[in-house]
Write a structure and sequence with these properties.
The chain is α/β, with parallel strands linked by helices. The chain has two domains: about 120 residues, Trna Endonuclease, Chain: A, domain 1 (3-Layer(aba) Sandwich); about 60 residues, no CATH class. It is about 40% helix and about 15% strand. It contains six helices and ten strands. It has a four-stranded mixed β-sheet with strand order 1-2-3-4. A two-stranded antiparallel ribbon has the order 5-6. Helix 1 crosses helix 4. The longest helix is centred in the N-terminal third of the chain and has 40 residues. The radius of gyration is 25 Å and the shape is elongated. The termini are far apart. About 25% of the residues are buried. Bound molecules: zinc ion. The site of zinc ion has 9 residues, from helix 5.
Amino acid sequence: MRKEVPRVTSIRRLSRIFKKIHEERDRKNGRTGTKRGKENERRLVASFEQYQGTLPSWFFAIYPATQEEDESGADAVIDTQDVGRLYLQVKSSQSGVRKFYKRRRKKMIGVIVISDKQSNDDIVHVALSILESLRAKLLERRTASLEEEGKMATCKTCNGAGVNETGNNNLPCDDCPAGDTALFNIAEVEGLVTGAEVRRHFLNSSPEPITFRWPPIHAEDLPGRKK
Ligand SMILES: [Zn+2]
């Protein structure tokens, strides 16, 4: 016996039905994709929080990107001592990485692929090596542009990083302009301060000294800093 098949009244109606099915499927895929992406972003930051090894001295902090930073392609923000902020975008697959590099706008964004199989330490090691190479490129570029302006041959004291590592302390370099803009962690201050601010407030000969205090003052409240 022939089975009753519902009559399709028109091609137009049929294509509407298919369109609905496809939309629903895309919506579901999109949603699981985003959910997994968010989880990997959290995992990246959490891996650093749980990391017991030694982090390089230029590494200050990692935190999740703000909505605005997210829109410009960053999932995590990394504060560094000498090259300012670096950004990481988290992907779950290599194909995502290729797509990202094709339309990347900012040069200080690196891409990290995170899979479920990786341990937290693996993730930190991979992230650090990506950040190292971003940092090296930025230092190189900065040195090149300073040389172009004739301001400086590469500084022998700090290698262009702006930080004079004395062994005991990291001090702002006094021998080149990068010393003013390098960033530092100071116990008395919440947030990062520039080399120029270190000289102004926190060295023995500082003209406007800020003495140790608790709770720390916020970097935004340093005298002379723009609000
Ligand atoms: Zn220097």
